[in-house]
């Protein structure tokens, strides 16, 4: 009886946590939409070419980076994601979403460069690779590395390293994809907000704060 009650309690707790997660996502999206409205957009444009304002381009780039940081942090946490518990399909979908966000981040970086946003050397390297037609290879993060296709890719890279000099091998690592596995969502969010506050004027910041309080 005690085991049944404990299992029931755990099920109810998980359902409650899912509800909180959904509500949190809805609230976060509402805040993102309000931020987008500062730059004259209802939501973040799917096509970066629609944005010509450097401040807006930088803002939307930071949004994508924040989402990417959260996704990577989650899939790297064995308490939140695992192939055994969630299944290969769910983990594959999560990893595919990370890859999609990486592509989106690169597109926004290219747009930022086009509209005159100052980029770091690492960011400029991503832009140069994109412009030269170098395709972004698919990376596997966290528990997604346990997927069959991830293990196959790792084995192929290991074989290639044995056949060729190390300097000629493209390492199958997070660094190759210009993503830092160690960065936390809080660090991404904090840096994004700080950069945005520097870019926005005092009036715009006041208007944004007022809109959130409404």
UniProtKB/TrEMBL annotation:
Gene3D superfamilies: Helix hairpin bin. It is found in: Nucleus. Pfam families: Isy1. GO terms for biological process: generation of catalytic spliceosome for second transesterification step. Its main location: nucleus. It comes from the Eukaryota. Belongs to the ISY1 family. This is Uncharacterized protein.
């Amino acid at each position: 009886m005690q085991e049944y009650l404990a299992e029931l309690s755990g099920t109810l707790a998980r359902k409650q946590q899912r509800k909180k997660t959904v509500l949190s996502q809805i609230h976060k999206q509402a805040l993102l939409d309000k931020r987008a409205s500062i730059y004259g957009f209802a939501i973040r444009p799917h096509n970066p070419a629609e944005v010509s304002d450097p401040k807006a381009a930088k803002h939307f780039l930071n949004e994508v980076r924040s989402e990417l940081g959260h996704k990577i942090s989650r899939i790297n946490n064995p308490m939140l994601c695992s192939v055994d518990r969630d299944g290969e399909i769910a983990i594959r979908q999560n990893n595919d979403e990370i890859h999609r966000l990486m592509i989106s981040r690169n597109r926004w970086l290219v747009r930022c460069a086009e509209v005159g946003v100052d980029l770091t050397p690492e960011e400029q390297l991503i832009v140069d690779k994109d412009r030269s037609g170098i395709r972004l290879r698919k990376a596997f993060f966290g528990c997604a590395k346990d997927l069959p296709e991830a293990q196959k890719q790792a084995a192929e890279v290991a074989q290639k390293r044995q056949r060729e000099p190390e300097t000629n091998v493209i390492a199958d690592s997070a660094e190759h994809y210009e993503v830092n596995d160690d960065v936390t969502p809080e660090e991404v969010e904090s840096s994004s907000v700080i950069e945005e506050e520097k870019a926005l004027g005092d009036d715009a910041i006041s208007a944004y704060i007022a809109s959130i309080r409404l």
